[in-house]
UniProtKB/TrEMBL annotation, chain A:
<dbReference type="GO" id="GO:0016887">
    <property type="term" value="F:ATP hydrolysis activity"/>
</dbReference>
<protein>
    <submittedName>
        <fullName>ATP-binding cassette domain-containing protein</fullName>
    </submittedName>
</protein>
<comment type="similarity">
    <text>Belongs to the ABC transporter superfamily.</text>
</comment>
<dbReference type="InterPro" id="IPR003593">
    <property type="entry name" value="AAA+_ATPase"/>
</dbReference>
<dbReference type="InterPro" id="IPR017871">
    <property type="entry name" value="ABC_transporter-like_CS"/>
</dbReference>
<dbReference type="InterPro" id="IPR027417">
    <property type="entry name" value="P-loop_NTPase"/>
</dbReference>
<dbReference type="GO" id="GO:0005524">
    <property type="term" value="F:ATP binding"/>
</dbReference>
<keyword id="KW-0547">Nucleotide-binding</keyword>
<keyword id="KW-0067">ATP-binding</keyword>
Automatic annotation (TrEMBL), chain B:
<protein>
    <submittedName>
        <fullName>ABC transporter permease subunit</fullName>
    </submittedName>
</protein>
<keyword id="KW-0812">Transmembrane</keyword>
<feature type="transmembrane region" description="Helical">
    <location>
        <begin position="236"/>
        <end position="255"/>
    </location>
</feature>
<feature type="transmembrane region" description="Helical">
    <location>
        <begin position="158"/>
        <end position="180"/>
    </location>
</feature>
<keyword id="KW-1133">Transmembrane helix</keyword>
<feature type="transmembrane region" description="Helical">
    <location>
        <begin position="38"/>
        <end position="58"/>
    </location>
</feature>
<keyword id="KW-0472">Membrane</keyword>
<feature type="transmembrane region" description="Helical">
    <location>
        <begin position="70"/>
        <end position="91"/>
    </location>
</feature>
<feature type="transmembrane region" description="Helical">
    <location>
        <begin position="187"/>
        <end position="210"/>
    </location>
</feature>
Amino acid sequence: MIQVQNLSKRYGDHLAVDDITFTCRPGTVTGFLGPNGAGKSTTLRMLTSLTIPTSGSATIGGHRYSDIPNPGAQIGVLLDASAQHNGRTGREVLTIAAQTMGLDRKRVDEMLDLVGLSPKEAKRRVGNYSLGMRQRLGIASSLLADPQVLILDEPANGLDPAGIHWMRQLLRHYADRGGTVLLSSHLLHEIEVIADEIIVIGNGQIVAQGSKDELLAGAGTFVRALEPDELARALSVAGIHVTPATADGFSTDADPADVGKAAAAAGVALVELRPGDRAGLEDLFLQLTAGNQRDALAPAPAPGFGPAVQQGGQA
Amino acid sequence: MTAVAPEVGIDLNRPRVPFTRLVGVELRKLADTRAGKWLLGAIAAISVLVMVIMLWVVLANDISVSFKDFLIAMSVPMGVLLPVLGVLSVTSEWSQRTALVTFTLEPHRGRVLAAKVAVGLVVALFAVIVAAIAAAFGNVIAGAASDATVWNVNLLELLGFYAMQALGILMGLTFGALLLSSPAAIVVYFAWAFVIPTIFQVAAAFIGWFEDLLPWIDFATAQTPLFDGGWTGEKWAQLLVSGTIWLIIPFIIGARRVLRSEIK
Ligand SMILES: Nc1ncnc2c1ncn2[C@@H]1O[C@H](COP(=O)(O)OP(=O)(O)OP(=O)(O)O)[C@@H](O)[C@H]1O
Ligand SMILES: [Mg+2]
């Protein structure tokens, strides 16, 4: 439904978006993950015809956004929740959008209700809103026309954990009805909670994309044994590099099956063996973007710690 | 939950946002902020205030006045406030960053700009009607006191008066579109409207050829026949030339800027 093909954007001599290609299918929530300045917002602005691409194409349902008549009525867009007139009330902001799209005014109340803004809060000026309230108002605005496609830039920014879970339910519901959802974030845990498909972008390039499960599997294995020293030796013999993760546990980029086999062959009793956990995925994100990161956030890999990910469908 | 529903494609056959609706939305956006409410309110209030002050002076000094005198007095504050309204209708989209939403809901920015122009023409009409009512009211009272009520403005002149106010608001819109910043556009507009003419006058007094040139580049003076009459072919040409220099060309440049600038 959303198709981005060899899309690039150059500002002077800086390539903000560098030849990216991806597709978001109906029925899925796609997370667009990348560190600050990676090119997420630029991509979403090109998708909504606000920024002209240097080359490549970005289409929705096969059409350029600007070719779609009354696009707001078919595509819900939230690019920046703080881009609202501070002097307008929340209700007025939604009323203007509804009027432009030609929607029934009762949708305004329905959406205020849906995003949890009380009638009293809706009468307040947006300038007095908290970040989370602005975000909810922006989400309400994007949902006004009950669109089939949602494009949201950092929608979870400023939401509390309950808000993030609420949004996950909401977007899940949209996707289950056949909707296409694309949302960006620079926070892994938000994407992890909300999305099924993940596209990771760093320095304008896609560094990994695939389903969340695939990318999670790429995070390797966590293993714990009664005698950790013996386990370390056994794995080392099997050619599996490990890093200590807890007092008696290790993480490794090898498959759980290989780790289990090596431990069994050496007769080491395991206490725990599972795919890499959240920290593993965090590692993945940092590793994937480290090479592209201006601040080189990720620490230098420990000796013997191999490349983070082999799979993940390099684009 | 439920099975995944079949995808419904994007429909290209839906009607686009009708222009009248865009105008309605822009009109609403002008009136629903504090600045907009104050400016619109001030335009009405100051017209009434001008009428009251004039009446006071006229009655106290036993001077005779006409409908036209009232209108001329009211056009001074309007000439200040209407351009500011024009500026803000464009620049607030940038300073408050609402352009992001406006141009997402209507990606054809030219249509939005055209709607803003239409709203400017409507607001100028509102201002002229308020001024005309206040002026008529003042004229009736002044006339009753002096036994002679002078209605010396015909429909064509009233139309000319409207055209002057409309040009004022369009100049504001143009400066707004050129600079895309409220304070910059307001300052530059007032410099253009009140400082430059003085400099031109001084220059004309010293430089002979500039004195001949001045009527062709002085947009404000070129507009005076709109209300005072006395049209000649040359006066029309001067209005056209000065209007092209100060309104049409800058508007085209400003419109291109609005159409092409990246919205963030
Ligand atoms: N008009 C511009 N001129 C020059 N560089 C620009 C311009 N707009 C964006 N950039 C650069 O493009 C890169 C991508 O910016 P973008 O806003 O898309 O990042 P992002 O992924 O949305 O980051 P964040 O998570 O901070 O929102 C940045 O390096 C930014 O400095
Ligand atoms: Mg961004």
